[in-house]
Amino acid sequence: MVPMKSASYLSAGARIHYLDAGTGIPVVFLHPTPLDHAYWLPLIDRLPALRAIVVDLRAHGASELGANLPMGGFSRVPDAPALTMSQLGSDTLVLLDQLGIREAVFVGCSIGGYVMLELWRRAPACMRGLALICSKPQPDAEANRVKRADTIARARAGEREALFDGMVQASTGATARARRPAIVPELRARMTLSAEGIVAVQAGLAARPDSVPTVATITVPVFGVAGGEDFAVSPAEMDVFRSAPGGCGLHVLPDAGHFVAYEQPDTVAALLAPWLRQFGV
Q: For residues 239 and 225, what is the distance between their CA atoms, to the nearest angstrom?
């Protein structure tokens, strides 16, 4: 892999960290929570030469949470500040402006995909294509909102480490854990969100909008990967992306969990690389 330049920029008072390497068509990678940019590195190492811009989302990795986040967006926990998809989208647009990038291809997993859908609503002209990995357009079901409220309560009660221990087990597929047990401590080490960050992320996820109507407006090519062992996003939920007017190639990996791009980077790269070729990558 080409050595990555580490840099940062300011967005709404928070310093956001990112890596930038390579030349050509820029591809922006947005990771899942509670991981950081390192989630993407095994995949990028297996892709053809491209300009990879790999972000630590606000509050994750080396990026700051910032202050003055909006309150009241999550009705079950009205005193929780929310790290909204709108704020994460704004952070990404500031980065594009900082780098002088007018358009890019975007690859996002989970919350990273939700941010991409927000970007499509706000700035579709900057998006040449959307690759969504274990991400869905539906808003939280009520059962998910109940679980997020419990996660917020536990984070506030000092159970951060126990939460992460549970998250890494639930989010990594059973097949990956059996094939390579070391994947669990590897991913667990990248879970560094503060308790305040957990609260803000969970509130923001609970308050995210319904993006199903947005799918019907996506006129650029869409790519998707779903995991059959994913506890959070089902292949059926991702099937909605097939209705995107720009076309969608959706792939289901039956033996993969929520962190599929880290669990199976060879397989995901083999699927993603041909799709990227249409953009000149």
A: 10
- Looking up tokens 């300009």 gives 51
CA distances from 250 to 113, 133, 172, 276 (A): 14, 10, 20, 14
pTM value > 0.90? yes
What 8-state DSSP symbol labels residue 266? Answer: H
Which residue has 């097939």 as its token pair? 242
Contact status, residue 30 vs residue 73, Cβ threshold 8 Å: no
* pLDDT 10s digits, 198-230: 999 999 999 999 999 999 999 999 999 999 999
**Residues 6+ positions from 124 with CB-CB distance below 8 Å:** 217, 219, 220
Question: Which residue type occupies 105?
Answer: V
> How does pLDDT run across 51-95, given as a tens digit for each residue?
999 999 999 999 999 999 999 999 999 999 999 999 999 999 999
In whole angstroms, give the CA distance from residue 57 to residue 104: 17
Start-to-end Cα distance in the chain: 15
**CB of 133 within 8 A of CB of 225?**
yes
In 234-273, which ranges are E strands?
Answer: 248-253
Could you give the angle at which helices 85-99 and 195-206 cross, rounded to 10 degrees? 100
- For residue 11, the cross-strand partners are 14
Q: How many CA atoms lie within 13 A of 204 on its CB side?
A: 27
Strands (E), the chain: 5-11, 14-21, 26-30, 51-55, 104-109, 127-133, 222-227, 248-253
Q: Which two tokens stand for residue 93?
A: 């647009």
Per DSSP, the residues of 45-65 read TTSPS-EEEEE--TTSTT---
